[in-house]
């Protein structure tokens, strides 16, 4: 019984680490998406006001850098999601694990990120935007 407790504790610890990583990366991605929108608004404002060409180019450069960061963070988020899903799949069927709050919250996070990512893909496919 003590071996089971130790094993469960180790699995839960690893599950919490993977879940925490995904949460952090997902939040980071959302912040970068917000940054892209803000940079686009600033760029549009500068163009509309007829700002100096250097200011417009600088704003465009800032926006492009933000877009690059979105793509980088998406790669990291996707990797973290895949790792969490592999871990969850490997733990499925283990009632001692599946009945824990950690497993249930990790599963919910995985489903939330997957659904949001799919919605973002659908949105992106429907519009000509780069992000």
UniProtKB/TrEMBL annotation:
Alphabetically ordered keywords of this record? Chaperone, Cytoplasm, Cytoskeleton, Microtubule
- One annotated GO biological process: tubulin complex assembly
**GO CC, any one term:** microtubule
Enumerate the InterPro entries for this protein.
TBCA, TBCA_sf
Q: Kindly indicate where the leader peptide sits in this chain.
A: none
In terms of Pfam families, this protein maps to: TBCA
Protein's name in the database: Tubulin-specific chaperone A
